[in-house]
Task: inverse folding
């Protein structure tokens, strides 16, 4: 399958027949965001994201139900030793959708009644890529470890998993600790 920067479904057939329950449009694909998009979402990916989506009519006027999932492998830094860690994530999603002709892009709005978020779209062709990227990014853990027993970095930045014997060199404070506290004063010419 070819990776794309969009995840577009054409919902025209649903919009035309929104009163007949049972209509469904589904699709799947590989999503490879641009570098700028990845930077915006604070994401690094090991491979394109996998997505599957389906939009169903619910029988109401211009109301639909979106369900599906997005999965992939992000690259995150171990919080102790800062090495790259591949982090697999899969997020399920389900949203009510409303068709409001005239709205430009797909957007998430809060409905006043029950505080349930609802997706609003205004064109038959809907690009779900921004939504998928955000849901994937939110699903990532806040921090990761390369291994439970990660030894982290020494004070001078050496990875102690690779060099467990490494000792950080003594700092100047330690080296001077045997001198009288005001020894430096003798160098001043008064
Ligand atoms: Zn680590």
Result:
């Amino acid at each position: 399958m070819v990776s794309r920067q969009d995840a577009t479904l054409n919902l025209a057939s649903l919009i035309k027949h929104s009163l007949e329950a049972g209509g469904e449009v589904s699709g799947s694909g590989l999503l490879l965001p641009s570098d700028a998009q990845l930077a915006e979402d604070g994401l690094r990916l090991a491979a394109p994201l996998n997505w599957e989506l389906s939009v169903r009519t619910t029988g109401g006027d211009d109301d639909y139900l979106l369900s599906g999932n997005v999965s992939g492998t992000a690259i995150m830094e171990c919080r102790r030793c800062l090495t790259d860690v591949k982090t697999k994530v899969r997020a399920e999603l389900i949203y009510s959708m409303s068709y409001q002709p005239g709205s430009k892009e797909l957007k998430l709005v809060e409905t006043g009644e029950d505080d349930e978020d609802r997706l609003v779209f205004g064109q038959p062709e809907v690009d779900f890529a921004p939504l998928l990227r955000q849901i994937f990014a939110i699903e990532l853990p806040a921090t990761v470890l390369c291994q439970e027993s990660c030894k982290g970095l020494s004070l001078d930045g050496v990875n102690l998993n690779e060099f467990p014997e490494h000792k950080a060199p003594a700092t100047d404070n330690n080296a001077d600790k045997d001198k009288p506290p005001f020894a430096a004063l003798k160098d001043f010419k008064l």
